[in-house]
Design a protein that fits this description.
2 copies of one chain form a homodimer. By secondary structure, chain A is of the alpha+beta class. Chain A has one domain: Mth169, Chain: A. The first copy, chain A, has a 3-stranded antiparallel β-sheet. Strand 2 of chain A pairs antiparallel with strand 2 of chain B.
Chain lengths: 80, 80
């Protein structure tokens, strides 16, 4: 079973990596970019057979290690 | 229009960040994790009205800046 976790900065939190990428794209003459934000995608391969248990465990991993919930939000997707 | 780009290491390329996270999760007593891989998720807000043109432009951005295509693959998803 595979879990896909996306961790991204909360709205309103400054994203310097995204800003730098935005400027770099503009200096490469790419037009029409309004905003760039950069997050992490974490793909976990799990032994679990129960997808509800897997989701619960992965949310616990996010809260304790994978995301800094003060400034970041996350989504968890369980893929069979 | 929003473009969601996922950039991840190609199969077979060592992922030290994923390995370190895997060990850290195990030391926190999480069980049943077979593998962890970590990539980037880049969310672009675009002025484009044509989704085909948006996809073409974003793929060009990936090839020229966002991904290192020697060791990384990427997917592009265009959201209305």
């Amino acid at each position: 079973m595979r879990a896909i976790v996306n961790v991204y900065l909360k709205n309103g939190v400054l994203d310097p990596q995204g800003k730098a990428t935005h400027h770099a794209l503009e200096s490469l003459e790419f037009k029409g970019i309004k905003d760039v934000r950069i997050g992490k995608q974490i793909v976990l391969e799990l032994d679990h057979s129960d997808s509800e248990q897997a989701r619960k465990d992965v949310e616990e991993m996010c809260d304790s290690l994978l995301a800094n919930t003060v400034i970041e939000d996350y989504t968890v997707e369980i893929v069979a």
